[in-house]
Records
---
Amino acid sequence: MENLAPYAVCEANSRGRLHGEAAPRWRNQFQRDRDRIIHSSAFRRLEYKTQVFVNHEGDMFRTRLTHSLEVAQIARSVARALHINEDLTEAIALAHDLGHTPFGHAGQHALNACLREFGGFEHNLHSLRVVDLLEQRYPAFPGLNLLFETREGILKHCSHQNALQIGALGQRFLSQRQPSLEAQLANVADEIAYNHHDIDDGLRAGLLSLEQLRELTLFRATETDVRARWPQIDAKRLRHTVLREMLNHFVTDLIEQTRARIRDLAPADLAAIHAASEPLVDLSPALRSQHFSLKRLLRIELYEHPQVQHMAQRSQEIVSDLFRRLMDDAACWPDALGEWPRDPTLRARAVADYVAGMTDRYATSEHQRLHPSGVGS
Ligand code: MG
């Protein structure tokens, strides 16, 4: 890693791994984490998990896997421009959604409701549980034994109560310190990525219209500019060009604003990043406001669209039915999960781990197997 800024995370300032391991020979420690994430089962399952559109609705829509790749692409470009740790940023971006349930946010809401009396379910915290515990591939330790900084980046937010229970990783939430720039960046790249690809998918699905998007100042201005340069442009190229230019605008703004904030604070080292009063990786106020308008439009016009809501409703029923059946009926307990835990709290967490790990189609087929007559659905 050449030209790394003094406040970037590097091997010398890393807090290392929970279980000691020999250093890799041909990779750095951060590349090792990225590779462990790519080779995990949870990462492969992202291919069949919903982003907004349920997996079987069309082959062209984003899935959690392609979303994660787009986040990693954006995050890496910005990391390089900022001279921070590109490999760590990539590892965090690829891992950030590993804890997502099937059926996107609908699945998460349903599972959280099922677990209300057992501590709830939060996909972000679950991502950490996947890499710390649920991936079983190494004889010497549970999980992937990732670096502290990769785990810190995965855990974007955390309640006070949860922070008290997760040791060193919870400390920054309790003392209100900032995570590394690499973690901050992966978080913003996630938001920029989904705003743009959800517009693209929404337009392609015919659930969003150009008229609706023209309510956004930035979309309208970019479209006018593109049409002036390419008066004969067809609808498909117009969509791609406007979104590409908007994305570029956001990424450029993010790089310039973050550079300016770093210049103002002049952090000498990583400790100065942690001690800063607010995150340094951020958009300008003008673009932040466009970003919120975009989010609001997507929520109202796409995520709450009756067609998306109809699918979400159905998905919630599938997740809740699966949870209840596995919780209440020992005969349904899969052999792969070992003994049926007698303690309800342990049982609830085991069921949540199992259901959260399912892909959309596996959840659907398990639901059909356990509810052949549609009972409970
Ligand atoms: Mg995401």
Note: DSSP finds 18 helices and no strands in the chain.
---
Amino acid sequence: MAIRKVARLGHPVLRAPCRELTRSEIRSHVARRLVDDMRETMAEYDGVGLAAPQVHESVRVAIIEFDPGDAERDLDAERTSFTVFNPRTTVLDPTPAGYWEGCLSVPGMRGFVERPRRVQVDYLDESAKPATVVAEGFLATVFQHELDHLDGVLYVDRLADPKLFAFNEEFNRYIAEGG
Ligand code: ZN
């Protein structure tokens, strides 16, 4: 495994639509190594999700992994670890749910984004078998954020209000405290 370099806002790889992988590619050592490296990279940078283009691979793969005990993240999902290939999203409830999002490709910043509160994601798992997950609330936001990356879309494109965008330090000092 290896920690890979994370592409930052402005790098064209983050804006290119990614291609799907074939089932045999998904089962290959190349895909396994990519996913292992993505997990290690995400852990190193303390992320909750990572999409392949963020490590300069323009393919439709994303991982999501975080501590379910993290109450701050308003989570009632049982499962919080996913590796998804060729995912497709269907909105089940378009009611907007707003969260302050961050991204390893936009380091040190966060912004407020509203997304549909409940979605279904159909994907292929690491054995290239079809799988489905229904995600709500924070988990739904994490899925939509990561899967946007596969279409070259970043959360900064979806800010609810351009003023609701801040450096983490200022966010913690002036916004999180309600100041
Ligand atoms: Zn991101």
Note: Strands lie at 49-51, 61-65, 81-101, 109-124, 130-136, 165-167.
